[in-house]
Design goal:
Layout (H helix, E strand, L loop, with lengths): L1 H16 L1 H18 L11 H19 L1 H11 L1 H6 L5 H27 L10 H27 L3 H17 L12 H7 L3 H13 L7 H6 L4 E3 L2 E3 L1 H25 L14
Antiparallel strand pairs: 1-2
C-alpha cells in the first residue's frame, strides 16, 4: 500500500508542478468548443454548448489517461522505474499506483474544465447530477488509464509510443461523437465508430451530464445517445456497461502486460529500439 501511495503522490506532484502543460490542457478544450460549436446547432440539441462540452470533457479525460504511458516510459528511461521494480515491491502494486495516479489526474482535469464550463452557461437542474458526473469521470479515468499502461508496457521506445498514442487518440476521439456527431459521418466510419469504446463512453457520460436519463429510446437515438442495431437498441445505460467491460479488459491486459514486461528494452533512441 505504501508503494501505491508513493507513486500516486509522486505523479500528482509532477502534474501540479507542470503549470504550462496544465494551462494548455485547459485552453485547448475551449478552443474546440469554439470551433465545433456551430456543428451542434440543430433542432434536436437544446443546449449545444453543454452538449459539446460533455464530449470535450470526456475526450480530455481519455487523452489525459493515456499520458500514464509517457510518464511510465520516462521513469523507465531515467532509471526510476527500474529501481522500483528491483525492490521487494510487487509489479502489481506498481501498476496499480500508476493507474490510480493517472485516473486521478485525468479526473481532476475533467473537473477543472467542468468548473470553467459553468462560466460559459453550463448549469444543472438537479444538484445530484454533479455527483453523478464526478463518479462518471472517475470511472472513465480508470477505464482508459488501464489502456495507457498497457500501451506503455508494449512499446520499446518513447518515440515509438508518440506514434502509437496519436494512432489511438485521433480515431478514438473523432470517431466517438465527442466533437462531431456520428450522424454527420459517412456510413463506413459510423460502422467503425460502433467498435470504438469511446463511442459508448461519450454517449453514457453525455446522457448524465445533460440530464437526459428519462427520455424515450426514440429521443435518445435522435440525440445520438443510443444506437439502433437492426432493432436492438443500445441505451446509454447499456453503453455504461459496455464501457465498464472494456475497462475490465484494459485493466486485466495492463496489469498482466506490466508484470511480464522487460523494461530494460525501453529506450529514447528511435534507431536502437532498445
Amino acid at each position: 500500500m505504501r508503494t501505491i501511495t508513493a507513486l500516486w503522490l509522486r505523479n500528482i506532484r509532477g502534474f501540479v508542478r507542470d503549470r504550462v502543460k496544465l494551462v494548455t490542457s485547459l485552453v485547448i478544450p475551449f478552443f474546440f468548443l469554439y470551433v465545433f460549436n456551430s456543428i451542434f446547432k440543430t433542432d434536436q440539441v437544446e443546449d449545444p454548448i453543454a452538449f459539446l462540452l460533455a464530449g470535450i470533457i470526456v475526450a480530455t479525460v481519455f487523452q489525459t489517461s493515456l499520458n500514464i504511458a509517457t510518464s511510465t516510459i520516462d521513469d523507465t528511461v531515467s532509471g526510476y522505474m527500474k529501481e522500483i521494480l528491483v525492490s521487494p515491491t510487487s509489479r502489481f502494486q506498481v501498476a496499480l499506483g500508476q493507474i490510480l495516479s493517472a485516473a486521478t489526474i485525468a479526473t481532476t482535469q475533467g473537473i477543472l474544465i467542468l468548473i470553467l464550463g459553468f462560466f460559459t452557461g453550463l448549469s444543472f437542474d438537479y444538484w445530484y447530477t454533479l455527483i453523478y458526473v464526478l463518479l462518471a469521470l472517475m470511472l472513465v479515468g480508470l477505464v482508459f488509464s488501464g489502456l495507457g499502461l498497457f500501451l506503455a508496457s508494449m512499446v520499446k521506445s518513447s518515440s515509438t509510443f508518440q506514434v502509437v498514442q496519436q494512432a489511438v487518440v485521433l480515431p478514438f476521439t473523432f470517431l466517438s461523437g465527442a466533437y462531431i456527431p456520428l450522424a454527420l459521418l459517412p456510413e463506413v466510419l459510423r460502422m467503425v465508430a460502433y467498435f470504438n469504446p469511446m463511442t459508448y463512453t461519450t454517449a453514457f457520460f453525455r446522457t448524465i451530464m445533460l440530464e437526459k436519463g428519462g427520455l424515450s429510446q426514440t429521443e435518445w437515438i435522435e440525440l445520438g445517445l443510443a444506437f439502433d442495431f437492426n432493432g436492438f437498441i443500445v441505451t446509454p445505460w447499456m453503453s455504461g456497461l459496455i464501457m465498464t467491460a472494456f475497462g475490465a479488459l484494459f485493466l486485466s491486459l495492463a496489469t498482466n502486460s506490466f508484470v511480464h514486461a522487460d523494461f530494460n528494452k525501453i529506450s529514447r533512441n528511435p534507431l536502437s529500439g532498445r
